[in-house]
Amino acid sequence: MAQAREIDPRPWYLLSPALLAIALLVVVPMSFILVYSFYENIDLGLDAPAFQFGNWRELLTDGYYHDAIWKTFRLSAIVTVLAAVLGYVPAYFIANTRFRHKWLLLLLLILPFWVSFIIRTLSWIHIMGNQGAINGLLLWLGVIDEPLPMMFNEFAVIVGFIHVFLPYMILNVYVSLEGIDRNLEPAARTLGCTPWQAFLEVTLPLSLPGLAAGCLLVFVLTAGSYVTPLILGGPDDFLFGNLIYDAVLSELNWPMGATLSFALLVLLGVVVVVYSRFMRLNQLSKAFG
């Protein structure tokens, strides 16, 4: 009779610090949020423990929240597509440049991370505002007679998101391109491919894991943001994160804020699961690595 195979506990010893950190920093806080979503808000800032589904019922039946979810996902998709198109070219340039000090280009790419997220977002007011640099230049040149309305609308929100999240896309695509064998594209050209065909048939398919990882990262970060719409958007340019912000800080309705937070977590989790199923999670993990 064959003996049962013993499980080596040493890998679990090595994983235990990471598992403990995940449990304490992710699982436990999210469990508290889930439990708090069933509490009842009695008055402004006053909550009572109760097992009731009023918050969830309001979320599922109120069209206001449905519109916010649709707007969040639509805007996140737009930002992701634009970031992918705009980010691939500089990533390709950095990966294939003959410049000896490539580290300097990467330093310039991550340099914006040294500046506060809020300050970078506020800077667009001085660029696209009525008294900003763009309108000031166009008025001085006589191209326009009055300032263009470029601020406090969806366009400004998209510009702000791309400005903040574009480096994430470039870095992911760059890592994927850097791992491609430099001899593959010249080999394709020797077999009769034009430079454009060699790019489409060789470089682009091999860089898709990095592009897919960048798209997923930008989409999730955009969907969970609230500062950029708060600063650059108008009254109707709110995202789902802004509803969470209002529920917790403005209305002091923490049970509803917990409900919205957990709902957003579930929605983004579904996006990640579906995305990884079609794009292969192992390829995404390689790109992130």
TrEMBL record:
The keyword Cell membrane applies. It holds the Pfam family BPD_transp_1. GO terms for cellular component: plasma membrane. Keywords: Cell membrane, Membrane, Transmembrane, Transmembrane helix, Transport. Signal peptide: none annotated. CDD domains: TM_PBP2. The chain crosses the membrane at residues 12-39, 73-93, 105-127, 155-175, 252-276. It comes from the Bacteria. Residues 69-275 form the ABC transmembrane type-1 domain. InterPro entries: MetI-like (IPR000515), MetI-like_sf (IPR035906). It is found in: Cell membrane. Belongs to the binding-protein-dependent transport system permease family. CysTW subfamily. This is Putrescine ABC transporter permease. It comes from Thalassobaculum fulvum. The lineage of its organism: Bacteria, Pseudomonadati, Pseudomonadota, Alphaproteobacteria, Rhodospirillales.
